[in-house]
Amino acid sequence: MRILHTSDWHLGRIFHQFSLIDEQRHALLQIIEAIEVHKPEVVIIAGDIYDRSIPPASAIGLFNEFVDQCIGTLKVPIIAISGNHDGAERLGFAANQLKHSGLHLVTSLDQMQKPITLADEYGDVDFWAVPFHDPAQVADFTGSPQTDFNQAHCSLIEQLPINKKYRNVMISHCYLDGANESESERPLTIGGADRVDWKIFKPFCYTALGHLHQPQYKGQESIRYSGSLLKYSFSEQHHNKSFTMVDIGPDGSNKITLLPLKQRRDLRVIRGTLEELVNAAKDDVNHEDFIQAVLTDSQALLNPMARLREHYPNILELKKERFETRTGQDYARSSEQLKRTDLDIFNDFFEQVHEQKLTEQQTKLLQKTLAAINEQESSS
Ligand SMILES: [Mn+2]
């Protein structure tokens, strides 16, 4: 049984006010080409088909194009589950009817009680598709309280009528404990209660996961995230995006091949002074890429974004490194910080911008100025 496993398409994603729909179409065409070449028996989409619960018309149109090509033209069925970005009820529209034409949309816990069974020359393969769910939904469904995602996921899987005579494939949208995250995944909950133990997937001959955007496996090679369709944050600049081809043998063993996804325009971070970046840009053949520029200049700059945009028309974000250095330290909120005088605070600012302390003369001048302001404020 040959499977193509993909996930986290996020169709309709707007990235820094820029619609990625053309990049997404470019990537989906590569998947269609792979279906033509490799002739899988099923395509799995492990959640986050859309970026939002009410996707833009262009995103629905693009998914429609894919479904027409995959099921209509190439006659390959699709099994898809809802992810945390999808609106499950909307995505599940007409699911009971659509499955007869090969589009299996599993978006509710009721639906997942029955496997989707496909056969190859060695017999049946049962696909168990678990749509994204939170502990409260599972508690409602099972009638017993669920403290966290791990417990909820375990309870769901334990009560499935799995027949071990067949080969069983699991499809789920969840966060495996210890796996690598990126900045573009929306947290499922605050504080780590969203983590699921990979060991609950051990009984399955393959587990097709969605949610984390970096292609990776956890625990064993058959428990795997395909990764997202595109790079959806600058933290993913070094990811190699791909989708996964899995061949399941007669005994349930599997062979895994990663099929790379080429990005139409890459997404990357460049770093240096404005002059350095502008000079380097002249020889940059990939100037149409999506760019985040991190400027290391210490002095004020005139219109840096406009200057960079002359060379990089798709520059999306500009950061000034010198103003970023204290972030993450929760500096402003510390009680130490609250005790600091105006002079201390100005001194910090000056040091951060100029990399040197105020001279004695500057300090005196500043003290005088601050005193004058205070006096003015108290007398007014
Ligand atoms: Mn996602």
From TrEMBL:
It comes from Idiomarina aquatica. CDD domains: MPP_Mre11_N. Pfam families: Metallophos, SbcD_C. Residues 1-96 form the Calcineurin-like phosphoesterase domain. Gene3D superfamilies: 3.60.21.10. Keywords: DNA recombination, DNA replication, Endonuclease, Exonuclease, Hydrolase, Nuclease. GO terms for biological process: DNA recombination; DNA replication. Belongs to the SbcD family. SbcCD cleaves DNA hairpin structures. These structures can inhibit DNA replication and are intermediates in certain DNA recombination reactions. The complex acts as a 3'->5' double strand exonuclease that can open hairpins. It also has a 5' single-strand endonuclease activity. PANTHER family: COMPONENT OF ATP-DEPENDENT DSDNA EXONUCLEASE, NUCLEASE SBCCD SUBUNIT D. InterPro entries: Calcineurin-like_PHP, DNA_Repair-Maintenance_Comp, Metallo-depent_PP-like, Mre11_N, SbcD, SbcD_C. This is Nuclease SbcCD subunit D.
